[in-house]
Write a structure and sequence with these properties.
With about 120 residues, this protein is mainly beta. The chain contains 1 helix and 10 strands, in the order ββββββββαββ. The protein has a single domain, classed as Sandwich (Immunoglobulin-like).
Amino acid sequence: MAASDIELTAGTTFAFSVTWQQKNGDALAPIDITGCTARFQVRDVKTDELLIDAQTGGRGIEIPAGPDGLIKVSLGPDVTRGLSSRPIGQAVYELRVYFPSGDAYPVLPSGFLAINQGVIRD
């Protein structure tokens, strides 16, 4: 798996957070995303079927108040339940931030997401 590849187990909570940063001299500094919205999608590579769609506003993504560049994605079992297995290379994801100005930027550019079936069946 490449560093940008991630995986989830269907029927379980899938959560991660990322701090969006940019180079400022020799250091990294968080980007102020106050007032921004975000969207995370997962699609089937061959069919373009939308598998997961999370957004700010109580739909799986939170941007905490403050200029620290933090984005939290948390998808409950109700969102991941029923997803069929897909090995790396069959599903692609992207996390994008939208500024009030209308500008949109990929925070996590496209990468592959593996979907595994868990052993426990709920």
